[in-house]
Write a structure and sequence with these properties.
The chain is an alpha+beta fold. It is built from 3 helices and 4 strands; from the N terminus they run ββαββαα. The protein has helices at residues 18-23, 49-65, 67-74; strands spanning 6-8, 11-13, 32-37, 40-45. A hairpin with a 2-residue loop joins strand 3 and strand 4 (40-45).
């Protein structure tokens, strides 16, 4: 399957069909883990509760540390 990125605001999004979400047993609210390996982007749902808590803590820390940068990028 080939997909294209769609412009959304100042960024871009990859929209996943409902059938793909169902195959992966995912909902749109599930947090996702992203990994880059060379030119490959790996996207997978965070299923482990410990990993989910760790991911949320990292998100909070990054948002706090880079708040000014994120704000400038959004402009």
């Amino acid at each position: 399957m080939i997909k294209n990125l769609s412009k959304v605001g100042n960024g871009h999004a990859l929209f996943l069909d409902r059938a793909i979400l169902e195959l992966l047993r995912m909902s749109p609210d599930d947090p996702l883990e992203l990994e880059v390996h060379g030119d490959v982007l790996l996207v997978r749902p965070v299923r482990d509760p410990k990993s989910r808590a760790k991911l949320q803590a990292v998100r909070k820390k990054v948002r706090k540390k880079y708040a000014k940068t994120f704000k400038r990028l959004a402009e």
